[in-house]
Amino acid sequence: MEYIYAALLLHRAGKKVDEEGLKRVVEAAGITPDLSKIKSLAAALSEINIDDVLKQASAAPVAVAPAPSQAAPQPAAAPAEKPKEEKKEEKEEALTGLSALFG
């Protein structure tokens, strides 16, 4: 990937995209250049009009990968006593309703 970036950087700077230029850019980035990759890329790009390719790429729709879903933060667990209190209140309300029926 760094070789493609080097080629784009050279192109943007108006420099010739060749083996020597690619090698210098990659070395300047602190990466040990792989000369076989540089030769392959330089040969492949010598037959391509980079401006046309960039125009086509900018006109093509880009598929956006969905962001990885993150679990929603869970609220802190309520103490065990709280549900018991709610159950007691529900029972009291139910008993109140029954007492009204039976007087």
From TrEMBL:
* Pfam families attached to this UniProt entry: Ribosomal_60s
Record GO biological process: translational elongation
Task: List the biased-composition ranges (Basic and acidic residues).
Answer: 81-94
Determine the domain of life of the protein's source.
Answer: Archaea
Q: Where is this region: Disordered?
A: 65-103
Entry keyword Ribosomal protein:
yes
Record's compositionally biased regions (Low complexity): 65-80
The question of whether Ribosomal protein is a record keyword is answered with yes
The protein's assembly and partners: Part of the 50S ribosomal subunit. Homodimer, it forms part of the ribosomal stalk which helps the ribosome interact with GTP-bound translation factors. Forms a heptameric L10(L12)2(L12)2(L12)2 complex, where L10 forms an elongated spine to which the L12 dimers bind in a sequential fashion.
Name this polypeptide is given: Large ribosomal subunit protein P1
Task: Report the source organism.
Answer: Caldiarchaeum subterraneum
Identify the taxonomic lineage of the organism of origin: Archaea, Nitrososphaerota, Candidatus Caldarchaeales, Candidatus Caldarchaeaceae, Candidatus Caldarchaeum
Q: Which gene encodes it?
A: rpl12
